Amino acid sequence: MLVMGIDPGLSRCGYGVIRQKGRATEAVAAGIIRTDKDDPIPRRLYELQNELVDLMGTYNPDAMAIEQVLFQVNVRTAMGVGQASGVAMAAAVGAGAEVFEYSPTQIKKAVTGWGGAGKEQMGQMVQTLLRLPKPLKPVDAADAIAVALCHLAHHPAASRIQAAM
Question: In angstroms, rounded to a whole number, what is the distance separating the alpha carbons of residues 17 and 97?
């Protein structure tokens, strides 16, 4: 099973792709998509959409797992994150992938066992779980991988069926 995780953002959208083969999970790709803060929002969303469509075409994941935006202090930031999230979901559906949303607490619990884990703990666990030589940078990419790992933890039956195929 191939899962793409998304840490949505308009300025920096993290993505990560992991593959599960039987009981082993490996990192396939991770990075961020940046948009220029000086560009108009419609242009930025268009660029984000194009990048995500390209990534979906390159990796052809079975599922996209995306972090839900539950609360933001800054309304402008929340709007941009929500818009980026919608663009990501649309790109996934257009590529034939199922979309699953997870709260930050669900992601932290799935990866570290504790819903109050910090960024550093999350990065260390992603590194440990995927047997990476060093922590993923930038943090948005590590967060996206964590979202994908959360999906595998919440959908083990789907993962086993896909692995058997």
Answer: 13
Q: Count the neighbouring beta carbons within 10 Å of the beta carbon of residue 131.
A: 10
DSSP structural state of residue 116: T
pLDDT in tens, 17-74: 999 988 889 999 999 999 999 999 999 999 999 999 999 999 999 999 999 987 666 6
- Annotated active-site residue 54? The verdict is no
In this structure, is the dihedral angle defined by the CA atoms of residues 133, 139, 141 and 147, taken in order, positive or negative?
A: positive
Active site residue 47: no
Residue 54 contacts by C-beta under 8 Å, 6 or more apart in sequence?
none
Q: Is 143 a catalytic residue?
A: no
Q: Model's pTM, two decimal places?
A: 0.90
